[in-house]
Amino acid sequence: MAEAANGRRRVETVIDIRKPPVSFTGGLVFECLTYTVTKKAKVEGKWSNEEVDLLHDITSYAPKGCITAVMGPSGAGKSTLLDGLAGRIASGSLKGKVSLDGATMSASLIKRTSAYIMQEDRLFPMLTVYETFMFAADFRLGPLSLADKKHRVENLINQLGLTSSRNTYIGDEGTRGVSGGERRRVSIGVDIIHGPSLLFLDEPTSGLDSTSAHSVIEKVHDIARSGSTVILTIHQPSSRIQLLLDHLIILARGQLMFQGSPQDVALHLSRMPRKVPKGENPIESLIDVIQEYDQSEVGVEALAEFARTGVKPPPLSNQPHSVSTVAPSYANFSHLSHRFEEKSVEFSQVSRKAVDGFDHSLRSPYNNTSMSWSTGNSAAFLKFTPARLKNDHKAHNTTSNINIVVGMLMMNCVLRRNNASPGYYTYSSEIFQATPTPHSSDYAVNENDYLTPSNGTKEHLGPKFENSYITEIWILIRRNFINIRRTPELFLSRLLVLTFMGFMMATMFHNPKKDLQGITNRLSFFIFTVCLFFFSSNDAVPAFIQERFIFIRETSHNAYRASTYTIAGIITHMPFILLQAAAYAGIVWFALKLRGPFLYFLLVLFVSLLSTNSFVVFVSSVVPNYILGYAMVIAFTALFFLFCGYFLSSHDIPRYWRWMNTISTMTYPYEGLLMNQYQVNDTFGYIDGVPITGFQILESLHIKTDGSRKRTVDFILPSPSFCIEKPEVVENCI
């Protein structure tokens, strides 16, 4: 009898774990998610590595057509869970299983079928709302005609309530644009233009006032009702926003504290038992209770155990004592069942209205395959009749069947960890196998496109990118030209600096003397020109760092390739860089009467400016902020200047530092300008009456040419300044 009672208690505990809706027509199911990182900790005065679970055995689900909100105190793991579900955690670091509409999904597949809206709005400030959406449509809806893209963008603008801001710039700190709420809606629209099956939002109401935040969640609510699975993290939602949330997942210390309907939070607290103070919000009360346990000696593990098994947590010192092993009462099951059925009917009606009112054309044309989900997949529908309800005729009449979607998944995870006995599955024979669920959404993932067959051969996964290589480059070039045209400050400031410095150099180095000092002055002009072009590119550091976040957001969901972005950037900036180089070259070439082909001189300056600009962009791509970017660019500029061969000949450089002369980006334009100037037999000066030709100057510097090619083949000998200071060794310099 004791064993039977114990078995019944265990079964009842399993049943009480979850209270999902009666019918679950699909969505995201995740089982036993664990994310472990290694960090350094000081133990007994010594530093050692220890493993910490940022997520620990999280098993839950996010229904299709609903808003699932992930909540919890600061540091609970909300964003970590969102990143894990969105495939943004490094491969292999996250353990567990994720399935969408019954199809097991890998991180790469989730990225291809989802959209992730970051907490910060990363948009081009000088594009209008309409232009921003059109470029998003070009990237994500490649095969559609231009007319279809425009039609979809217009519908999206109307549905997001952005009609009045259609032709307004996005704006930033220096340019007036759309409001904060409108900006957030634009960010959402950019990522849902292709109709993703999954939508992840990280703190979508952060930094918004109450009205704007409610407006944003209202639009997200409409998106969910159109058939998407929406998961968002949110901190302290208002009471109006809470009414729009369908499903809650509350975390603390990376562990699951509660999941279910927001209306069931009060019931969850009463079973602890904790009462909700009069006039207080049940969700806020639960989070307060979690923080109380977190700050106590008991910890939140007791609340996580209560969420898993129903075993009541021990009372805190300021609570009245209660028995912690009493199983939850089933007196409320009849009420819950009726309420779930009512909510299911209500949800179906509201969902149909919302879907009818929301434009289905916003769904991707590649995600319109109907798919029914059977229990053959990882997350099965369970039909369960508990023993106590069988013995209670009245309860049996009112609540004959209780459908559980995720409860057994979680218990399976718990049992594997605790090595519990099979007694928990006493009634597993009542699980009906191969029972189909209600018809899935028309926007479910196409299993034939995304699943890998068991025989190991990969089927057609569909194109990873919507556009061809050339098309991507063309779209990016068009966008780049619009941004440059509307923000000409960077280009014009650099052009003015080079023009001004060109006039200054033309007046300072005009008519050099035909002696060793004159040759030295001309060499100084060339090295200063190289340094000027290098320093003039430093202003690109903050510009690219700002754009880098947009690049990361867009490429994370395969909007375009990184290589096409690079090529488009080079092609876009080449005309402007050529104009800057030509302005400087045209001024100094004729004023100083330089020798050699003008086109070669211009080419060296152009390539020098292009390479230094590329180097600055490279540095900007690896630093976290522009302050560190400036510091690194200045440091490398000093190193390249030191080892370019002007101050110290390469054979005098210690052998272990000579590689710096090779990688210095100033070495090659400096030597190229010298070869263009002195690769002639003209006389450039006299030493003790002996004429010095250009070839002799190049030979003294060990810069040689091979036919028509201009290249460096040897090391540089003593610098001109050394020859001036040591006249007795001047014969070694010539």
UniProtKB/TrEMBL annotation:
Membrane-spanning parts: 491-511, 523-545, 565-592, 599-621, 627-648
A biological process term (GO) from this entry: response to symbiotic fungus
Annotated keywords: ATP-binding, Cell membrane, Glycoprotein, Hydrolase, Membrane, Nucleotide-binding, Translocase, Transmembrane, Transmembrane helix, Transport
Domain ABC transporter, first and last residues per copy: 28-278
UniProt keyword Hydrolase present: yes
Localisation: Cell membrane
A Gene Ontology molecular function term of the record: ATP binding
GO cellular component: plasma membrane
Predominant subcellular localization, coarse grouping: membrane
Keyword Signal: no
Topology versus the membrane: Multi-pass membrane protein
Record-linked SUPFAM superfamilies: P-loop containing nucleoside triphosphate hydrolases (SSF52540)
A Pfam entry, by short name: ABC_tran
Oligomer status and interactors: Heterodimerizes with STR; the resulting transporter is located in the peri-arbuscular membrane.
Family the entry assigns: Belongs to the ABC transporter superfamily. ABCG family. Stunted arbuscule (STR) subfamily.
UniProt name for this protein: ABC transporter G family member STR2
Species the sequence originates in: Vigna mungo
